[in-house]
Every structure is written in C-alpha cells, then in structure tokens.
Design a protein that fits this description.
Blueprint (H helix, E strand, L loop, with lengths): L14 H6 L5 H10 L1 H9 L10 E4 L7 E4 L2 E2 L1 H5 L12 E6 L5 E5 H17 L7 E4 L6 H12 L2 E4 L6 H11 L3 E5 L2 E3 L2 E3 L1 H11 L5 E5 L13 E3 H6 L16 E2 L3 E7 L7 E6 L1 H14 L7 E4 L6 H13 L3 E5 L10 H9 L3 E4 L1 H8 L4 H4 L8 E4 L6 H11 L6 E3 L33 E4 L12 E5 L14 H9 L6 E9 L5 E6 L3 E4 L2 E4 H9 L4 E11 L3 E10 L7 H14 L8 E4 L13 H9 L12
Parallel strand pairs: 4-17, 6-7, 6-8, 7-14, 8-11, 11-12, 16-17, 16-18, 18-19, 19-20, 28-29
Antiparallel strand pairs: 1-2, 3-13, 4-5, 9-10, 14-15, 21-22, 22-23, 23-24, 25-26, 27-28
Bound molecules: 5'-O-[(S)-butoxy(hydroxy)phosphoryl]adenosine (WT7).
Length: about 625
C-alpha cells in the first residue's frame, strides 16, 4: 500500500495505475500537443462521429470570437446516444438512479435514447423549434438529463436552472433566455423533505411573461397548482398515443452546425445579474470527451459517479454529455449525503460498485465532520480514482479523502476549470505524480500562465493572475445577448488572453496552485455567487436602502457570506429584521446564498467615485490590517 503523503510531497501512483492509464507520459503528451494545438484537437475530434467533417479546425480570424470545426455538421446527441445503439453499448446501463427515499431506476443506452426521443417529440408538439430556448428547473432525477438531451436532439437550446435556486434566480434566467417552455417538477426530496419546486416556479412565472407551457414531472406526487391550458404533466404527455408530432420512441436527430448553440448556463460574474454562457455542439463534445477519458481514465468497466448536480457545468459536462459520449455507466443520486445517516454516499459506493467518484472539497469536509467510522463500515474497495472540483482542496480534506475513502490507493484528480471553460483545464492524469492541493499542470492542448499587473509572467512561487493564452475547443462562445461584455470581461485586461478571475502560483516544478477568486465572485460550498446578486436581493427588500456583501472564510463551506445593510429612513434595526433579511436572500436567490451574518450599519466604506470597498469590509471583519485606504471617502 502506498505511503500517505504530506502536503507538498509528491505522491506517485502505483505501477498498475500507470499501466492501465490512457496517458502514460503526461509531460510528453503536453509538449507534443503544444507544438501543434490544432493538430492535437483535430486528432481527438476524429475519434467522434460527425455528419460532415470540418473544412477548418480553428478559425481565429475574428478574435476573441473563435470558431472550432468550421463547416462541420454534428449533434452532440448523435455521439452521446445514437451511435451507441449500433454497438453492444446499446444494452449497457447508461444511468443508475437512486432517489433519496430509496427509489431506484435504471436506463440502458437503448432505454435512455428512447425516453429522449419521446420527450423530444413532446417538446416538438409544443412548438419548440431549432434554436428555441427551454428552461429546465428540476430536482436531481433522470428527467433532468432526459430533458437536456431531448432539447439537444431537436436543436433547441437548454438553459438549466439549478433546483436549489429560488424565485428571482429562476425568473431572471427565464426572462433573459426568453424561454417559451419550462420543464419543472412537483418537487424533489432533500434531507427527508419534499421541496416543492412548482410553487417556486409559479411565483417566478408571475414575474416572467415569456413562458407559454409548463411541463411538470411528478416526483413527490404532492398536490400542486396546475394552470389549465399552461401546465401539463410530463407522464401524461409522454403517454399520449401518437400525437401530432408522434410521441413515440423515434425522433430524428437534428443536423446541427458545429458552432450552433447547445446550451446556455447562467453564472455569476463581477457585475450585475448572472450572465448566460454559451456552449456549442461541436467543440464542446471534443473537449469534454477527451478530458474525461484522459483525466479520469474512463474505461468501459467503470461505474462512475459525479455527485454534483446536473444543473451546474460540472453536471452538464461530466454527468450528462461526457460520460454518455464515452459510453460509460453513471450513477446519479437525488438527495443529501447525510440522509438518513452520514454514510449514505459510502453505502451507494458499496451497493453499486462505484469505481470513480467525483465531488467537491466542501462535501468532503462536510462528511469528514462525522468521523471516519461511517465510511469504514462500508466496502469501498471498488474505488480506483477520486476526483475533486469547485475550489482549492485544503490538505486536511485531501488527506482524509485519500486515506479514508481512497485507502491511500486511489489517485486524487484535482480538476480546475470553470463554467466558461466547459472542460477540465488544469488537472493531473492518474499516471502523474500528485501534490496535495495542486491541480498539477494544464491539460494537453491548454496553455496557461500566471501574470503580474503589467502582464508579465511572475517568478516561480509568486502569486499572480491566472490566464489562458490560446483557444480551446470547449471554450465559451460568448455571453448571450452581450458580446461586448464577453470581450470586456474576459479578453481586455490582458489583450488576447483569457482572464479566469482566479489568482494562482506556479511552483519550481511547474505545478499550478489555485489560490481563489480575485473578483467579486464568492464560492460558497463550491457554488458561484456574485456580491452584486446578493446585494440586489437585499435592496429588493422594502426595509433596505443600500447593501454590501463579502465572502468570509468558513470551515466547511470554504466561504460564507456576510452582508452589511443600511436601512431606509423610518426602519428600526431589530433581530427579527436581521433574520428576515437573511431569509429574504434565501427566498430570492436560493438557500445557498443565505448570509451567515447580516449587520445593520449606518454607512459603508466607499471610494470617492462611490464604489463600495468590499476589500476594506473584509479586512475589518477579519480583524486584518486595512491596507491602502487612500481612495476612501471620509
Ligand atoms: C471557479 C469556477 C467547473 C466546475 C465547477 C465550478 C473555482 C473550480 C477548482 C479547483 C481550485 C477551483 C475557481 C474557478 N475552482 N475548480 N479544482 N481548484 N479552484 O465552476 O462555478 O464556474 O466556478 O471555481 O475559482 O474560477 P464555476
């Protein structure tokens, strides 16, 4: 058995891991890819099926509006489902799903493809056409990937809103995407309780006018309000005998241009409302399939479990599209890791023989708190690889994950990437020596640098801004309806280089260490929130005139939110009001955004130009030196 590493130590994989690895010499592959990025990605693209091949791999004539696989015809569903139906994969399990209440459903590739066709026909019968946006707001149930794939199949653009989000988040996303159809559910189970999503959707729909039809999946079977002529039950639509469009098990896969949009996914940025990141059919499938195959070393015999929610980019790329393209068997679990006991996850690993587990540091820290005996009462010997994502993993959590879950046997693949990047950008592969807390090096075909304010690479060990210097196939193609902001936010700070928003270091061995966000984005339990969103939720409360939100270190969640509010004249600060304000944020955005602390103040530190100095609030809250306050207005 391998030795347990200390932080900064190199951890070498055993011979067997190296032998079975797709990539045996990571540095050599990276060096080879770097000599000709276009050729590297073209070779990977040839491993997938295309209706028509490209005339050009990369079009960089209109930077930063890059195009990949120009002229190619494809559809990601053709690679994720259709092509498997002509192979033995047809009969393989694509999805194993366990509900929090113990329900179990499984889908072979054949069954999943059929379900997707039927739902695609339902969408068509509701008038959904190629290019139309469909908002999906569902709990973690099989209908979530089914609805996504059904949209993609007919060329509609899905916009998934995480089921943990609430009224205003949902409303804003429906309105911005101008969706005419919403797919939701009566609810889902979380910590033993049924969460009524339909009630939240109803409230959001009162504020948003574009939606004509609502399709409601019955999960909890609780009674919900159904508006006649607008709301329909999913199961009833699916059961209709051959409607106009024919809700049978056949539906042709729409031929898409490689650059046609596949989905919008909203994410928090530096300013204003969350923005919709655009991903496309062609390049995205190449990036996602390649990274999953190499970094997690996916093999046909694996049983893979990404414990994230499909509503985030992690789920889009590595629950839905990536694993299906590779013909893998995926696990999906609806509920909380601690329900009914803190060994629920380990029970799932044992029961289904999971070999690859992919989760976030916050989940590991959360489960660590209950002690290792919960994990130790289960047979975890099927695990061979562990993944992590979402925020830097602290050495303590790394070691616990490695020792208690991975039995000091499984490599930990720490994948750094973003909603915008679509795919892993900095990650080890299983044959590569690890350093706990480092995502090691950029994936082959990816060029990353750490720069100082002037745009020069910093020296080894020094902190700077992480940028990506060359395009990659799964890169975002823009911000929906806002091309200027795309250029402004990502490509202007260091002209021609993609700004990640993270700070990082590169050590003497060329290993990358992510430090964290350097903009007004806060990662709470790995979820990405913007200070602006939280502030605007607070200001939407009638008692509030001004607000500022900051991220503060938190033991389990990584960061939590502190909010500072100035009340309107005539309002009095009471403990009840403080409580109500925190609740209000949870109701508007979602429980994850609920501030840990709300403090009522009479003034906020601002610059002379009127910008709130969050940095100063944060320093004060942490009892740290205030730093440069020369711009502070007295
Ligand atoms: C931000 C992107 C893409 C998966 C989920 C998050 C942070 C992500 C890591 C990691 C350190 C990480 C960064 C990044 N982050 N993975 N392995 N190590 N930090 O996607 O919500 O778009 O957030 O998450 O700060 O910028 P996202």
């Amino acid at each position: 058995m391998a030795e347990e590493p200390k932080p900064n130590d190199l951890w070498y994989p055993d011979k067997q891991t190296v032998r079975r690895s797709h990539v045996k010499d990571y540095d050599a592959l990276r060096a080879r890819a770097a000599t000709d990025l276009v050729a590297f990605w073209e070779e990977r693209a040839k491993e997938l099926k295309w209706f028509k091949r490209w005339t050009k791999v990369l079009d960089d004539s209109n930077k930063p509006f890059f195009k990949w696989f120009v002229g190619a015809k494809t559809n990601i569903v053709h690679n994720a489902l259709d092509r498997h139906l002509a192979t033995p994969t047809r009969n393989k399990l694509a999805l194993i799903w366990e509900g929090e209440n113990g329900d179990l459903r499984t889908f072979s590739y054949f069954a999943l493809a059929r379900e997707v066709c039927r739902f695609a026909n339902v969408l068509k019968s509701m008038g959904v056409n190629k290019g139309d946006r469909v908002t999906i707001y569902l709990p973690r149930i099989p209908e979530l990937p089914i609805a996504m794939l059904a949209c993609a199949k007919i060329g509609a653009v899905h916009s998934v809103v995480y089921g943990g989000f609430s009224v205003e988040s949902l409303h804003g996303r429906i309105e911005d995407s101008e969706s005419r159809v919403l797919v939701t559910a009566d609810g889902g189970y979380m910590r033993g309780k049924a969460i009524n999503l339909k009630a939240i959707a109803d409230e959001a729909l009162q504020r948003a006018g574009t939606v004509e039809h609502v399709i409601v999946v019955r999960r909890t079977k609780e009674k919900v309000n159904m508006e006649v002529g607008r709301d329909y039950y999913y199961d009833e639509l699916m059961a209709l005998p051959m409607s106009r469009a024919g809700t049978n098990g056949r539906c042709p896969t729409e031929v898409m241009d490689a650059e046609d949009p596949l989905f919008l996914l909203y994410t928090s940025g530096t300013t204003g409302r969350p923005k919709a990141i655009i991903h496309t059919h062609g390049g995205y499938q190449v990036g996602v399939a390649t990274t999953l195959k190499y970094a997690f070393d996916m093999k046909p015999e694996d049983r893979y479990w990404c414990a994230a929610d499909p509503g985030w980019i992690t789920g889009h790329s590595y629950i839905v599209y990536g694993p299906l393209i590779l013909g893998a068997t995926s696990m999906m679990y609806e509920g909380a890791p601690t329900y009914p006991y803190p060994d629920r996850w380990w029970r799932i690993v044992e029961n289904y023989g999971i070999s690859i587990l992919y989760t976030a540091p916050t989940a590991i820290r959360g489960l660590m708190r209950f002690g290792e005996s919960w994990a130790n009462r289960h047979d975890l010997s099927t695990l061979r690889l562990l993944g992590t994502v979402g925020e830097p993993i602290n050495p303590e959590a790394w070691r616990w994950y490695h020792r208690v879950i991975g039995k000091a046997r499984c490599p930990i693949i720490d994948t750094w990437w973003q909603t915008e990047t679509g795919m892993f950008m900095i990650t080890p592969v299983p044959s590569f020596p690890l350093k706990p807390g480092s995502g090691t090096k950029p994936f082959p075909g990816i060029q990353a640098e750490v720069l100082d304010e002037e745009g020069n690479p910093v020296k080894a060990g020094e902190e700077g801004k992480l940028v990506i210097t060359t395009p990659w196939p799964a890169m975002l193609r823009g911000i929906y309806k806002d091309p200027e902001r795309y250029v402004q936010q990502y490509w202007s700070t260091y002209p021609g280089k993609y700004l990640t928003g993270d700070s990082a270091k590169i050590d003497e061995d060329g290993y990358f260490w992510i430090i964290g966000r350097v903009d007004d984005v806060i990662k709470v339990s790995g979820y990405r929130l913007g200070t602006a969103e939280i502030e605007s939720a607070l200001v939407s409360h009638p008692a509030v005139s001004e607000a500022a939100a900051i991220g503060m270190p938190h033991e389990v969640r990584g960061n939590c939110i502190y909010a500072y509010v100035i009340l309107r004249a005539g309002q009095t600060a009471t403990p009840q009001l403080v409580d109500e304000l925190a609740q209000h944020v949870a109701r508007e955005i979602g429980p994850i955004a609920k501030p840990e602390k709300v403090e009522i103040v009479t003034s906020l530190p601002k610059t002379r130009s009127g910008k709130i100095m969050r940095r100063l609030l944060k320093a004060r809250a942490q009892g740290l030196p205030e730093g440069d306050v020369s711009t502070l207005e007295e």
